[in-house]
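Dear Dr. V.,

Thank you for agreeing to look over these. As mentioned in my earlier message, I'm a first-year student in the group and I'm still getting used to reading structure tokens, so any feedback on how I've presented them would be very welcome. I ran two proteins. I've put each sequence directly above its structure. The first is here:
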Amino acid sequence: MHALRARLDSVRDRLARAASRAGRDPASVRLVAVSKTFSAERVRAAAAAGQVDFGENKVQEALRKMDETADLPLRWHLVGHLQSNKARKTAARFDVIHSLDGVALMRQLDEAAVAAGRSLDLLVQVDLAGEPTKHGIRPEAVLPLLEAARTCRAARVKGLMLLPPAVSEPEAARASFVELRRLRDRLAAAGVDPAMLGELSMGMSGDFEVAIEEGATIVRVGSAIFGPREQSASA
């Protein structure tokens, strides 16, 4: 656990230095510790070091950890793909969904959040590269989704999310981050409500510093904080 705290401190320091290089306030970047496959005890250790935001890929695995850490004031992010049949339980427990990829799913999440009596933040996952193995919507579909989001009652679209193509060097991901930022800027120029474009969730353990330099407001960091992945339980 001492090693975990040291890694977390190192990531925070790298985040701050990247923000400073870009002339940004480090406080403008939210660090999400991606705890998928790691135990609730690891989540508790990170929380004891001041971490509040945690990300999970699988709903059932996350719900178990939420129950095991219910005494802590944590904020939970779903960063993996969401199947529509899990929309209701997801909307009732998570704070932020990073993987919105369609109007129908948005409607389901909104209705579920209304039924649960709570608000829910959504990020639109954008597929810039057209990769068949990844989820998300193509850039040209983002504006119609945002227009549809204006009628939501409890769910609120807050920005965009990106999973860039795998690269061997962090610098190779920069073009993807720039492209997402430019898409955000084009949407703003088209008159989209700024409240729907405030967040850019991009950057992970291998490239989060480059993402921050290009405007990321949320970075999703797992192994750089928790170490090598553990074998996941069924979820």
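The second protein is here, in the same arrangement:
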Amino acid sequence: MKFLASCLRSLPWLMALLLVAVAGGCGGGGGSGNSAGSASVTGQGTLGVSLTDMPACGFDAVNVTVRKVRVHQSSSASDTDGGWTEMTLNPARKINLLNLTNGVLDSLGETLLMAGHYTQVRLVLESNSVTPLANSVVPTGGVETALVTPSAVQSGIKLVHEFDVPAGQRVDLVLDFDACRSIVKRGNGTFGLKPVIRVTPLLVNGITGFVDTALMGSNVMVTAQQGGNIVQATVPNPQTGAFFLARLAAGNYDVVFTADEHATSVISGVPIADTTSIVPVSTSAAPITLQSTPAPATHKVSGTATLSTTPSSPTDVEVAAKQTLGVGPTVTVKSVFADENAAGAYELILPIGAPQLGAYSTALPIVFVAQAGAGIYAIQASATGYMTQTLINLNISLADAVRNFVLNP
């Protein structure tokens, strides 16, 4: 507790996170026909639901309008089956996801549930046909534009997640909406919503630190990764450079820092011991800085990534650029979804400077050392239900590259 108190004194924005989380546990919208008060009825417990966000890329705002949250004990239940419990927001609430980075939560409310085991959560959004611009984006420097949304937003975006509600107790879930991966730019100039959401317990833990404020305005991204896969992501506070990678399961993480026109930097082996671990990797006095590289600082990989067959349900192809840091870890530097309305076109603009690696230590600041592999990437195309294809050792240090992918089931 002394350590947590010290963290709160030094990180006012983390205190704000805790206050938001506590507020979410004390009130909010009610469930349909249910009181959201104390679970005093025998055989019932309370479910609280909050919304948060990984960062969005290239937008001043990403708005979704939440109408209700639905839960069911069967993972295969359809939206028209019986047995659903609903938590309705009245009126539906428009939320800018970009206000919810760095671990900040927005409580959607709470409802009573029968005690038991639940396996499905659905997030129901308002339709743009009912409320214009209910779900929208504001591109950087642009105007608000409606998102093209799948039909599932009205029946509920299906989130398969198992959790138990004990009698007389409270369970809190966080819907972590990855806006960066959920917004797809289409070839006709519009933007589509392809929701990428993970459900996690309400935890106050994670990896914290500061990035040099001189980097603000360069699209700085901070991610926590395991095995080269992004687990959590955020953007630093634009005024202070503070960041918080929240709600991480116990384990070791590689923390990856990227920014336009700068080499990638990685801190390897950052440990999260338990659900209360808050691990600093830098301080405001010695923030993380990234190596700038002389022009040209970047080259691009572009092409198409398509499916060889027509899937039975909408399936997106993700293209990721991964880089191995000498004898260190392999990390994802950048990823995008192929544009299904532009013949599967994709583009990745990548740094060609030598990546920097530092091993985690409690003694700060962490020292970074330049690694081999500058401008060398593995380009990976993947889609659910299809075989992943990986092009290894693509060297873009001298020029752009074009590579196409066709995925087979």
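From my reading of the second output: DSSP finds four helices and 29 strands in the chain. Residues 12-26 form the longest helix (15 residues). Does that match how you would interpret it?

Kind regards,
E.
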